Amino acid sequence: MKVNLSSSCRFVRINGVKLNVYDSGVSRSYDSPTTLVFLHGYPGQLSNWKYQVPYFEEKLRVIAYDQRGFGESDKPHRVSFDDYVSDLAALLEKLGVNSGDAVLVGHSFGGMVAQLFARDREVKGLVLIGSLTKIRVDFTDYIIQYTPSFIWKPLFFTRNFLTDRLYPQLYFSPSTPIKVWEEFAEDNVDYLQRLPAHVYRYHKYFADYNAEKWLSKVKAPALVVVGENDKIAPPQESEKISRLMPNAELKVIEAAGHMVLYEKPEELNSIIDEFLAKIGAYKSSPE
To answer: Which of 130, 158, 124 is nearest to 235 (CA)?
Structure first.
């Protein structure tokens, strides 16, 4: 499916960086003040929401952006979770969105940003998809951190025999048709090849993140979604998140992995739709 979100994006400067932002409110008006804010994973980009943005912008204002370091946004050499939370707060203010009207929809790393934002600020709701309470560092991360990029960039971030075998197994369900991986690769491989090496080393700045200590403080209604075959953020991690948050419900999507955004977009959108209706996001329930 060809969906070109980039043609409607603009750069917004906040906190000393330029962020690449898609905002359906530029060209549409809405009855409801509820605004969906989509936060991609690491090292993702806003186009990863290609199946969600067109669907939901028919009903509510939608904002999706490349977080600092990713997509077409600026790529500083040092980052922190405080930067991502501060960027989100400043962007909402600049675009005229009250955080209490915002539903944050975060995938993986983006879900962690959403959790942290909602800990200290009022939001209308949270949708956490394949999210985590801690960054999980693996052997690949050590290779990236401590060896020259000319070794690992061609190995891990180009289309080759290794990535064609490894990534479908790692990021997708065994039940997912290979054409879904092909589509994801077509959408993202060129971007991943272009990312500078220092962005792939950002994980060292996230080592101290541990949401288990404070998730009980997040009072907003939350929908926690995970693919039953997610290997990056296993279902037990989402189960833990839903237990720790006082107003959370858990939904497990069968035959889906970490990239449920691509694997089961219609089912995911339907689940989010039901949650939005439940928390009063719509003036009336969607058909």
So the answer is: 130
CA dist 273 and 126 (Å) reads 13
The contacts of residue 138 (CB under 8 Å, 6+ apart) are none
pLDDT in the model for residue 13: 98
- Contact by Cβ (8 Å): 259, 172: yes
Cα 220 → chain centroid: 18
CATH number for the domain running over 6-135+208-278 = 3.40.50.1820
Give CA 91 to chain center in angstroms.
16
Could you read off the pLDDT of 185-222 as tens digits, one per residue?
999 999 999 999 999 999 999 999 999 999 999 999 99
| pTM for this predicted structure | 0.96
Give the count of beta carbons closer than 10 Å to the beta carbon of residue 191.
Answer: 16
How many Å apart are CA 137 and CA 141, to the nearest integer?
6
Residue 70 phi/psi, 5° resolution? -130, 165
Q: Indicate the domain borders of the chain.
A: 6-135+208-278
Low-confidence residues in the chain, pLDDT < 70: 1-3, 283-287
